[in-house]
């Protein structure tokens, strides 16, 4: 919620790469809804790249570093935690890793003080 006396200038939707959400569809809906919520607001989206970190050796890697076929990517799209069943650390082979970024959807608001 934005405090009274402030205006929302821009909404940025960060779409996690693991979600594989359709940016165009999400932006289209947001651009239709945004003027009703905050007149004049700009809306855009960005894909937040997936990054992983091995808990055993500390290595970090991206989704592009993994050789996942389309069926696996589709499974991960619906259940991002499924990545733990299909991926392992490229350096040491461990399946004990964490998702550092690129999971889920988050919003960022740019606000300014209103007039008056």
UniProtKB/TrEMBL annotation:
MF terms in GO: nickel cation binding; zinc ion binding
The entry's keywords: Metal-binding, Nickel, Zinc
InterPro entries: HypA/HybF
GO biological process terms, semicolon-separated: protein maturation
Cited Gene3D superfamilies: 2.20.28.10
Keyword Metal-binding: yes
Domain of life: Archaea
Protein name, as recorded: Hydrogenase expression/synthesis HypA
Lineage of source species: Archaea, Thermoproteota, Thermoprotei, Desulfurococcales, Pyrodictiaceae
